[in-house]
Each structure stands twice: as C-alpha cells, then as structure tokens.
Amino acid sequence: MKGIILAGGRGRGCTRSPWGSKQLVPVYDKPMIYYPLSTLMLAGIRDVLVITTPHEADQFTRLLGDGDQFGINLTYAVQASPDGLAQAFLIGADHVAGGPSALAGRQHLLRARPGHTA
C-alpha cells in the first residue's frame, strides 16, 4: 500500500498561517505534517508521496528529506493550484500505480488508540 499527503493548503479552512503551508506550522513539538506522516507509518505504509505547492516544495524536502531517517521512502510532487482532494490521486497516479493507497488528512491530528474509538 502507498500513501499520499496533500501538503499544499494555505490555511483557508483553519487559522491562516504566516509560515505558508499549514503543514509547516508547529503543533506542540513538531510540524503539522508529522502527524499524517506518522499515521501512515503506523498503518504500515512505507512509500509516501508528499504533494505540495511549487514555492514550498524545497521547505518540505529540507524538512523530511527522502524519508530515510524515518525508515520510509518519500517522494514529492507539485500541485500548481489548490484544486481539491481528488486531484491528489490524479497527481499521484504514477505513484499509486493502480494499487491500494491511502490519502492522509491534512488537518486531522488525533487518532484513536488501539482498542478505543475516537
């Protein structure tokens, strides 16, 4: 299974971010993108595509690298304009190659513990 994280949001659905992408905003002790990334990792997904804007791609690459420090493979793609969640699967079509995949929510920071419901 492969994962996709949409990391191009500018914060229109929540508080606007002076940092640009809300995925770069620190939440508690780490940038917000670490939360969906860790959710995918806990699901056993080790091949993740991060989709971001052209002007923030370098920031994500510097922050996350190729994923080796997390024991995963990270690749990057650019979404020129915020055209919705479904476009993630169009941009990531080669990445998922028709196989099973998961799109991690951009603003979902909470997850239930095993054996508990949210």
Give the topology string: H per helix, E per strand: EEEHEHEHHE
Major pleated sheet: 4 strands, parallel
Level of helix content? 10-25%
Count of β-strands: 6
Kindly report the oligomeric state of this protein.
Answer: single chain
Q: Helical segment tally?
A: 4
- How would the global form be characterised? globular
Radius of gyration: 14 Å
Strand fraction band? 15-25%
Kindly describe this structure.
There is one protein chain. The chain has four helices and six strands; from the N terminus they run βββαβαβααβ. By secondary structure, it is of the alpha/beta class. The strands form two sheets. It has a four-stranded parallel β-sheet. Strands 2-3 form a two-stranded antiparallel ribbon. It starts with a strand and ends in a 14-residue tail after the last strand.
Question: What attributes characterize this protein structure?
Answer:
alpha/beta, globular, 118 residues, two-stranded antiparallel ribbon
Could you give the topology of this structure?
Blueprint: E1 2-6, E2 26-27, E3 30-31, H1 34-42, E4 47-52, H2 57-64, E5 73-78, H3 87-91, H4 93-96, E6 101-104
Parallel strand pairs: 1-4, 1-6, 4-5
Antiparallel strand pairs: 2-3
In short:
With 118 residues, the protein is an alpha/beta fold.
